[in-house]
Amino acid sequence: MKKKNCYIYTRVSTSMQVDGFSLDAQREKLRKYAEFQEFSIAGEYSDEGKPGKSIEGRPQFREMLKDIAKCKDNIEYVLVFKLSRFGRNAADVLNLLQQMQDYGVNLICVEDGIDSSKDSGKLMISVLSAVAEIERENILVQTMEGRKQKAREGKWNGGFAPYGYKLVDGELKIAEDEAEIIRVIYDKFIHTTMGAATVAKYLNRQGYVKKKRQNGTLDAFTAHFVKLVLDNPIYCGKIAFGRRKTEKMQGSHDQFHVVKQVEYPIYEGIHEAIIAEEDWLLAQEKRKKTGVKSEKIYSVEHQHLLSGILRCPECGAALYGSVNRKRKKDGSFYRDYWYYACKHRLEYDGHKCSYKKQIHQDKVNNAVVEVIRHIVQNSQFDTAIKKKLESSVDLETYQTEENSLKENIRQLTAAKERLGNQIDRLDDTDKHYEEKYHDMQNRIESLYDEIAEVNASLETVQMQIQGIREERISQERVYEFLELFDIMYDKFTEAEKKEFFHSFIKRIEIYPEPLENGQILKSIQFRFPVYYQGNEANTFFPNLENTVETIVLLQRRTM
């Protein structure tokens, strides 16, 4: 009698034993079963350290399915140790089984005593896979209820302590070396005109160093970090529940993502607050006002070309665009007059800015244009700028951090899967069942929090990587502008002009009052070296002796 051909498939979520059987033990069990049933093993497939919710992360399983579809070895059965090794999602299990049976291949779960070639076997597979999935959902619900109850009691839900705190016996205690940063962030945000990005720059500029947490390697502050601090009620002594929720991705049945919630309950915490509740509410009020960009309804095409890079001669803060809108006596629109002015009147190192002057935008814009127009005509500059823009941007540090966080998420997810398997295998007749169940439940709660924290860190790093890549693209566009600058500048849109200035120029300084000769530009600092009269420098200082300033003065006198 000809032996029936079969494949053996084994899987464990980690290199450790699962269900009490390692990969080798599973293989040995399946081989003995095949020998007893007089099956011929045509191939063995094994996935180690792979989750079982879907086949996407199981390359060997996918390879086995391809071989079945090719009728490679004319097999009749696939042997697995238990149904949980085949799949843990009811819909997937039945779908995969149907795919196999379309090619005349059935499934045998040795430990469960299930054979899909028999009617009772297929029914049993449907029931067991559905029950397992329902049980996992129930465990998740119970876990979330347990976390919610801890929040109601004002207790920390587990996972990494937020920046500014440390965990002592499971409770949050203030970490003074980090809490200082939290106080500075709130103080600068609510008592000055600083936004989140400016607060981050202030911290970096003042020499503050972010303590590395959760396997992080970057010590710089970012606007994203500042926003996370400002939005977290933990700092005013509260405990929030459900600020992020894992939701199923639309159009899929086994893919999930973390979604920030607009509304969520907040409870009184038992931990000590770092900032007053009044300050937290002030921060939320400002976040609502500054977090939404106002829609522009007048002079839609106009752009404040140098806003943000033109600096106040008194306090050094960035000047921003303002408008003086003139109207006719009947109230109808007449004309806009555009200026640069300093709006940081409440802040620079705690001192009020005294610079009240408004500068006509056309005046300083035209002066800067003429400086650039003359500089870019220099052949040395053209060669140098090409070399600069062709150089690669070093992303190694950020990419290393990204890979580290992804690996951390993979490990935490594997640990969560492993713990889920252990919960599934708990024997409810065990006299220590309740203690074991609650212990595992607390551990899985902690893992969910850790995964959410690492995901937040990954989002920050990926935003930084994207920013660097966008800067690279922006620099390449700068070169395109420079090549055509002399003849095409007047044809650029206002948006293109602004993009060019901000990509090419880092800082422009002006005199508090124009000099006797009318000169207003004090210096222009470029983002990469410029070449003029045989010299290379990042900063250009206009003066009467050079041709550039002469052109600026002539242009001014003819206006």
Question: What does the model show?
Answer:
This protein is of the alpha/beta class and 559 residues long. It folds into three domains: 4-131, Resolvase, N-terminal catalytic domain (Rossmann fold), CATH 3.40.50.1390; 165-290, Putative Large Serine Recombinase, Chain B, Domain 2 (Hect, E3 ligase catalytic domain fold); 305-559, no CATH class. It is 46% helix and 18% strand. A hairpin with a 4-residue loop joins strand 4 and strand 5 (114-115). Helix 5 packs across helix 13 (433-488), helix 12 (396-424) runs antiparallel to helix 13 (433-488) and helix 13 (433-488) packs across helix 14. The protein starts with a strand and ends with a helix. 24% of the residues are buried.
Could you name the key traits of this structure?
alpha/beta; Rossmann fold; Hect, E3 ligase catalytic domain fold; 5-stranded mixed β-sheet; 4-stranded mixed β-sheet; 15 helices; 18 strands; disordered C terminus
Total number of beta strands = 18
**Whole-number count of domains:** 3
Choose one word for the global shape.
elongated
Q: Helix share of residues? A: 40-55%
Largest sheet composition: 5 strands, mixed
The CA-CA distance between the termini, in Å, is 104 Å
Strand content: 15-25%
Secondary-structure topology with pairs:
Layout: E1 4-12, H1 23-36, E2 39-48, H2 59-69, E3 77-80, H3 83-86, H4 90-101, E4 106-109, E5 114-115, H5 119-152, E6 165-168, E7 171-174, H6 176-191, H7 196-205, H8 223-231, E8 238-240, E9 244-248, E10 256-260, E11 266-268, H9 277-290, E12 310-311, E13 320-327, E14 333-341, E15 359-360, H10 361-375, H11 379-390, H12 396-424, H13 433-488, H14 494-504, E16 505-510, E17 521-532, E18 535-540, H15 547-557
Helix pairs in contact: 4-5, 5-13, 6-7, 6-9, 7-8, 10-15, 11-13, 12-13, 13-14
